[in-house]
Amino acid sequence: MKKISIILTVVVLIIGIQDRSTAQVYNNEPPVDGLFSDGGGFINTKPVPYPPLRKADVMWKKRIWRVLDLRQKINQPFYYPLEPHNDWRNLITVIMDALKEGSITAYDATSQTDEFLIPLTYQEVINRQVDTIHKTFQRPYPPYEEFDSVIYSSFDPTRVMRFRIKEDWFFDKQRSQLMVRIIGICPVMMKELEGVEFPEPLFWVYFPEARPVFSQALIYNRHNDAMKLTYDDIFWKRMFGSLIYKESNVYDRKINEYASGLEALYEADRIKNQMMRFEQTLWEY
């Protein structure tokens, strides 16, 4: 009888210890990093749908190519953070993650055309950035003999400091409004050769295909931490700085092919103002 009571006592103690340990695991929630819990920062939003558009209502259209320099202050949220944190990722990280998952498709940008013709896989994009350079160096101490060295370079997302945008401006006579739609976006990596820096486009992304991904990727809102913005919001609201580097023309040439320096900036402003004046000349005041 005494043995039975001892066994029952031990069983009760074990059950009590298990209950307390279970309570410690499930009842103690992690501390809230902020005013309230935001559900882990996950957002399940959809992109704002384009308004319906009939081909017969487009009475005027102009294709424009722009470049976003991420070194400009207004464009820094596209470049930072370099490492993902606080549910924020920079734009090239969002694109590369979606490309790896298969959510978006990359198209070749090495040819002269920027059409979406040759699809690329994630591994093909990475392999194109792997480079091997053979160089000969001289030792700084006697007998100063020369030696060969191999330098390996891999994909470095921090070198993506520009983005090219291809967009169509059009006048919808049904709404009597000048509107714009982004068609494609292209990351541009800044590379250096013999001390000279030059841009190299990586690939093109079909923007309408990427909008569902951009609509679920948060970007830092420099004006208000309480108001969350996504990359789709930023592009939709045109909250970025850019410079026109090409317009549709009979020669299919860029501005820097016939103008340079200050003249190229004036030409970019002329193209922008020309589109604005087109809309103004349609009305009588």
Q: What can you see in these coordinates?
A:
With 285 residues, this protein is α+β, with helices and mostly antiparallel strands. The strands form three sheets. Strands 1, 2, 3, 6, 7, 8, 9 and 12 form an eight-stranded antiparallel sheet that branches. Strands 4-5 form a two-stranded antiparallel sheet. Strands 10-11 form a two-stranded antiparallel sheet. It has helices at 2-27, 76-79, 91-101, 122-129, 207-214, 231-236, 262-280; strands spanning 58-69, 106-108, 119-120, 131-138, 146-153, 160-172, 177-193, 196-201, 203-206, 218-219, 229-230, 243-247. It starts with a helix and ends in a 5-residue tail after the last helix. 29% of the residues lie in helices and 29% in strands. The chain is built from seven helices and twelve strands.
Describe what is shown at a glance.
With 285 residues, the protein is of the alpha+beta class. Helices cover 29% and strands 29% of the residues. The N and C termini lie far apart (107 Å).
As a percent range, the share of strand residues is: 25-35%
- The total beta strand count reads 12
Intertermini distance = 107 Å
Number of contiguous helices: 7
Whole-number total of structural domains: 1
Radius of gyration: 28 Å
Topology:
Elements (H helix, E strand, L loop, with lengths): L1 H26 L30 E12 L6 H4 L11 H11 L4 E3 L10 E2 L1 H8 L1 E8 L7 E8 L6 E13 L4 E17 L2 E6 L1 E4 H8 L3 E2 L9 E2 H6 L6 E5 L14 H19 L5
Antiparallel strand pairs: 1-6, 1-12, 2-3, 2-9, 4-5, 6-7, 7-8, 7-9, 10-11
